Amino acid sequence: MPAPIRLRELIRTIRTARTQAEEREMIQKECAAIRSSFREEDNTYRCRNVAKLLYMHMLGYPAHFGQLECLKLIASQKFTDKRIGYLGAMLLLDERQDVHLLMTNCIKNDLNHSTQYVQGLALCTLGCMGSSEMCRDLAGEVEKLLKTSNSYLRKKAALCAVHVIRKVPELMEMFLPATKNLLSEKNHGVLHTSVVLLTEMCERSPDMLAHFRKLVPQLVRILKNLIMSGYSPEHDVSGISDPFLQVRILRLLRILGKGDDDSSEAMNDILAQVATNTETSKNVGNAILYETVLTIMDIKSESGLRVLAINILGRFLLNNDKNIRYVALTSLLKTVQTDHNAVQRHRSTIVDCLKDLDVSIKRRAMELSFALVNGNNIRGMMKELLYFLDSCDPEFKADCASGVFLAAEKYAPSKRWHIDTIMRVLTTAGSYVRDDSVPNLIQLITNSVEMHAYTVQRLYKALLDDISQQPLVQVASWCIGEYGDLLISGQCEEEEPIQVTEDEVLDVLEGLLVSNLSSPVTRGYSLTAIMKLSTRFSSVNRIKKVVSIYGSSIDVELQQRAVEYNALFKKYDHMRPALLERMPIMEKTASNGPTEIVQTNGEAEPSVVEPKHPPPVGQPASQGNDLLDLLGGNDVPVIPTTMPTKPASAGGELLDLLGDLSLGGPAPAPPAPASQPPFLLDGLSSQPLFNDIAAAGIPPMTAYNKNGLKIDFTFERANPNPNVAVITIHASNSTEADMTDFVFQAAVPKTFQLQLLSPSSNVVPALNQGTVTQVIRVLNQQKQQLRMRIKLTYIHKGSAVQDLAEVNNFPPQSWQ
């Protein structure tokens, strides 16, 4: 068989290939020749063939069939064979393949070889791909080589010991005696690898960390010698003596000094020397300074030293290298909480980084700028950040807008400034703000009573300029609806009032209703605003006409609003002024409960859970709560004194669950005579919602049990009103998967009044590990037998499930 081509010739041949297919053909042809040679046990050219195989492996072609040949080369007595064999083992083998265990004996023999270079090959291979089993078997040999006087072997043994410790941490103590004399070595290679070994041991064991703290003076001395030593061509890099060793020592000092006063005190002086004596004109010096800064910030260093470190980072911000600027911004962001004043000195430089072309630097500069905002610099910083918001890329706008909102809420010098700032954000980046920005701004405006006229005028002007920013349009619509009379009267004292007529205001709002730029939520805001103006403007007939038009809108949400508002104009006109009066001041914390952001048919309005205020028009019931009540609020549904004579209006029919049970929706009653029955939640203003509910001894029942979902009813009787039955549902799930998005809805015949309160959760845990509870209140004035239709919807194992059921077997005690 002819001699195979050399590696150099193979490389030259492959490089002549013009296409990928041609290259693959050459590789396949050569692989076939190599396989034939392996089958023939050709020892002469095995080394050459394995070398070529490794080159093909580096190109991405399969070379696994050469694994055993590598082991044969390792077992050879020739150094050239061993070198290629060990290289192949490192590239082609890893601990996931059992073949590597066959090497253990060869490596053990080579670790005890008389030639240091063979020992070095074995150490490199073990340190590269040794498994935990190999490390346990060979740790003793590595520990012996770590004590040898040969610096060539000691540095390789130290790195191999690092790998052994990572694989088998319990062997760490074996290497402890060998580390005593490592730092006294003059050879920089041994010093470097020794520091790496000590660092690994300190990071993995608190006991080792405490043990090695006594080495701090020795490490300080080595670092000082490196700084003070003259030019050494063997170790010099850009005029700095062995920067790699300096960086490693600084990292180890950082670990040793963290949380320890004595160690930190011992290294303060040398850190100051490194920080002041290191040349910054080359990248090598900057790398050492960066490690020095990190060490100063992590240990218990003096305040002057920390200021020096932050000043170094400030100088980094002026560097032309983008990587150095990014590193400086990231480091300052980590230290700004502990050394706020020192970082503040570099505020102007940080703000300048907002103009950088690099997006990573811009993002870090933006985050750091927000961290620097305080009550003293809020005006100047917001000016810069708003300018950045105007010109930044779209991917920054959402985070920047959120940051401005939070900073303005925390440090606003005045309410006018706060309102102006948020309006500026909505004007420039309204499409990118968080969902809660609209209700938060509405709450801010509502609570700033003296700013109502100014705010509504500013927002009206903004609407005339631009209606593309939906959050801004929603806030403006809400404010015009609430304070339209102030806009017309021109009572603004903060700036020159504008002259505007009722028709002009209504033109703007009607334009929002028909604009293609308006979202369904925005149209809901606009229609509600027009409705509110019916009590503030004299153009009631025009408003009636607009509202009636949208009673047949294809948008179901808008149609339902219009139908309800039409009902207000016709049947309940005497209630309209009270229902549409201005919103009360919304406090974030109220005595009766926290502020809630209530989702109002797609439009978010903040409201306080306080029963003394009537709920605003358009505030919906929670899902399934008062299914057919068109005008009542969540908390106090009104009970009719007479039976309705016609079905519920269009909005109520959307949720009709009863069908053939002849269900009709209750209509709000006019002011009742003295004989009127009590409200369902009568006495709410003087009692908590669930006050005085006493058990009535009514037996529980199972209302539904299907597909692993079980619904149990338990009963109580409300003390203030014995005609009200309080039913608590308990939903449990016996399947192996959670039921998510769980919604329980219920409806009763006309002769009853039902209220469904909020559930405890919308997830029914699997395997009966918990239940979802929900309270139903049913008013049964005529003591008739209770019937109910329930509707269940949930998602189970990724599939949506919906089911209807009738419950007619209520215990007599629950309705008698």
UniProtKB/TrEMBL annotation:
It is a peripheral membrane protein. Keywords: Cytoplasmic vesicle, Golgi apparatus, Membrane, Protein transport, Transport. Residues 696-811 form the GAE domain. Gene3D superfamilies: 2.60.40.1230, Leucine-rich Repeat Variant. This is AP-1 complex subunit gamma. PANTHER family: ADAPTIN, ALPHA/GAMMA/EPSILON. Belongs to the adaptor complexes large subunit family. It is found in: Cytoplasmic vesicle membrane; Endomembrane system; Golgi apparatus. SMART domains: Alpha_adaptinC2. InterPro entries: Adaptor_Complx_Large_Subunit, AP1_complex_gsu, ARM-like, ARM-type_fold, Clathrin/coatomer_adapt-like_N, Clathrin_a/b/g-adaptin_app_Ig, Clathrin_app_Ig-like_sf, GAE_dom. Transmembrane segments: none annotated. Its main location: membrane.
